[in-house]
Specification:
Elements lengths: L14 H34 L52 E9 L4 E7 L3 E4 L4 E6 L6 E8 L4 E8 L2 E8 L4 E7 L8
Antiparallel strand pairs: 1-4, 1-6, 2-3, 2-5, 5-8, 6-7
InterPro entries: MmpS_C (IPR038468)
Protein name: MmpS family membrane protein
Length: 192
């Protein structure tokens, strides 16, 4: 016991034991201080108005508004007309070519003129003007009958020669082209 009537002091701990407790407590206080300090830093930023705002993306799909002043297009109407081609005018065979007669014809358009020659192998005759129709008596010794019409710078003409119901025709268009038709005698006395 002690002499003074005072309680005796607690036994003291060794130094190494004190360090064992002091170091972990200091570490905990350090981490707690850092955590509190960083939390206050964020609060200060929020108070300054630098708080990050969330980004919002809005996608709107809508049809464009119709303009009321623009009329709608009218429907398209297609009209198709079928035209039947007229047959080419042919000279009348039997009516205009009596037996034993050769009929020569030239018709169409020749604004610059046309030079016409017709006849058989034994005679060539000249004709002029459109339309042209000429008749000749068929000779027994003739080998062929022909007609030739040359355009003088443009036009569209047709020509024909008819004997005993047989007809040959020709056609010329533009420039100085020639319309030509010819019937040849055969050995039986006919024409082709």
């Amino acid at each position: 016991m002690s002499w003074n009537n005072q309680p005796s002091p607690a036994p003291s701990r060794p130094r190494w034991a004190r360090k064992r407790v002091a170091l972990p407590v200091a570490a905990i206080l350090l981490f707690a201080g850092v955590g509190i300090g960083s939390a206050q830093g964020e609060d200060a930023k929020a108070a300054d108005g630098d708080k990050p705002t969330p980004k919002v993306t809005v996608t709107v799909t809508a049809k464009p508004a119709r303009v009321k002043d623009t009329p709608e297009p009218a429907p398209t109407v297609t009209v198709t007309k079928t035209v039947t081609a007229k047959p080419k005018p042919k000279p009348k065979k039997s009516e205009e070519a009596p037996a034993g007669t050769a009929v020569f014809k030239v018709w169409g358009s020749a604004p610059s003129g046309v030079d016409i020659t017709y006849g058989s192998d034994g005679e060539n005759l000249d004709g002029s003007g459109l339309p042209l129709t000429r008749k000749l008596k068929v000779k027994d010794d003739a080998l062929y009958y022909q007609i030739s019409a040359q355009l003088m710078g443009g036009g569209d003409i047709r020509c024909s020669v008819t004997i005993d119901g047989e007809t040959k025709t020709g056609h010329a268009r533009g420039g100085y082209n020639i319309c030509s038709a010819q019937l040849n005698g055969d050995f039986t006395g006919g024409w082709d």
